[in-house]
Design a protein that fits this description.
By secondary structure, the protein is mainly alpha-helical. The chain has helices spanning about 5-15, 20-40, 50-60, 75, 100-110, 115-135, 140-150, 175-189; strands spanning about 165, 170-175.
Length: about 190
């Protein structure tokens, strides 16, 4: 293993030539300490088995010592991890992603109307945020309403007559927004 360098490899090869098992194990302990000094994070007890695995690899699995974590087998070191099960269901609007699709489903599953309206409002702001990530243009509320309808197969409806989508991803009543704009103008003037 190149990480440890040629000198450590020579030490391992020397340990293979030692015939007395007690002396060989004493040599291996000094090799382990040397390997740990090269990589201080391997000094932790949780990482000690990694050093022994590396020692086994460097010796070609021929080193005869009492392995504290069991002698590793070459087959175990080359096992591929199990494949993760990914969802194969298609994403309706890729620029919004699967999480938005799950949010739409959560809105559909909600039975309390007031809570559902709140979730739809939050969803609308999240859609605006996602839309602006992919498009530099300003997004119109009609586009967000249309997208919510498309994502929910027409089951969710929004009415934004009293609300305006804000850049800060919040729904603020128009009256409050106008009052806020008027305050800014008064301060400037």
């Amino acid at each position: 293993m190149r990480d440890y360098g040629l000198n450590v490899q020579h030490m391992v090869e020397y340990a293979l030539t030692i015939e007395d098992k007690a002396e060989r194990e004493q040599c291996v302990e000094s090799i382990i300490r040397t390997m740990q000094s090269l990589f201080p994070y391997l000094r932790q007890e949780e990482s000690k088995h990694v050093v022994y695995d590396h020692l086994a690899i460097m010796s070609g699995f021929r080193l005869d010592i009492d392995w504290p974590y069991g002698m590793p087998h070459p087959e175990e070191l080359h096992l591929n991890p199990e494949r993760l099960p990914y969802s194969s269901s298609p994403i309706r609007m890729r620029h919004y992603g699967r999480i938005i699709q799950n949010m739409v489903q959560a809105c559909l599953d909600e039975t309390d109307i007031e809570r559902q309206n709140y979730l739809i409002n939050r969803l609308a702001n999240k859609l605006k945020q996602q839309y602006l990530l992919w498009n530099k243009d300003q997004v119109e509320p009609e586009r967000i309403i249309e997208d919510i309808s498309l994502l929910s197969d027409g089951k969710l409806r929004c009415d934004f007559e009293d609300f305006q989508l804000m850049h800060a991803w919040q729904l603020v009543p128009k009256k409050t927004q106008q009052q806020h704009d008027n305050k800014k103008k008064k301060k400037k003037g």
